Amino acid sequence: MQDDVFVEGLARAEEVRIALTDRFEWFTHDTGFSHLTQVRDSGLPTREYEPWEIPVDVKEARGGEANCRILCFHPLGAKLRPPSSKERPHIRLAVAGADLPKLVGLDWTYEQKLVRSRRRARASAPIEDVSVEIANELGSVSVYEPIKPELLRVWTIGASDDPAAWPWLNDTKNDEIMKF
Q1: Is the separation of the CB atoms in 167 and 92 below 8 Å?
Q2: Confidence of residue 14 (pLDDT cuts 50, 70, 90)
Q3: Of the candidates 123, 139, 98, 97, the residue with the CA atom closest to the CA atom of residue 8
Q4: Are 104 and 20 in contact (CB under 8 A)?
Q5: 17 and which of 67, 104, 119, 127 could share a cystine (Cβ 3.0–4.6 Å)?
Q6: How do strand 104-106 and strand 90-96 relate by DSSP bridges?
Q7: Whole-angstrom distance between the N-terminal and C-terminal Cα of the chain?
Q8: Do 72 and 44 contact (CB within 8 A), yes or no?
Q9: Distance of CA 12 to the CA centre of its chain
């Protein structure tokens, strides 16, 4: 076990990604409806964080703040769905686990102390197992690359909760999209 759970997960990112996508088939992201045109054109971008928001060990492991831009996703089926930080109304987008970028890790934007305590409590367990447990409990993972628009499905009016049944974002008209 490394000193920092977030860095440990990044060091074993491939194994963490496999474990997460074996447990969760779909990952969703809520964003403001006002961002829809940008998302249709460019996909979901990673977000820049203030230097003080990024764990020091993560900055060092990633080679500086510029490499710490992330995008957070909710693993569908997790116990908790954290609230979105974007303005309302929201839209919900989904990406299949198989289409997530290679670098997937624990979300360090909130509950850092809790995540670290969960790791200490399971110090001998593989980081990929602990990552799945934490993602299931807290409802959020992060990716370090943008998601292309052609990989995104969108929740539409009258659609079920199953993203596999949702249409592709770029095949959908704005007035068909569920806003909440």
Answers
A1: no
A2: very high
A3: 123
A4: yes
A5: 104
A6: unpaired
A7: 41
A8: no
A9: 17
Token pair in block for residue 118: 């969960």
Structure tokens at 56: 């020091």
Confirm if 125 and 12 have CB atoms less than 8 A apart: no
**Cis peptide bond upstream of 167, omega within 30:** no
Beta bridge partners of residue 91, listed in sequence order? 31
Instruction: Dump pLDDT digits (tens) for 51-84.
Output: 888 888 888 888 887 888 899 999 999 998 887 7
Residue with tokens 């292309």: 148
* Residue where the block lists tokens 């060091």: 11
Only one residue has tokens 């974002």, namely: 169
Q: Which residue has the tokens 């909440």?
A: 180
Location of structure tokens 């860095």: 7
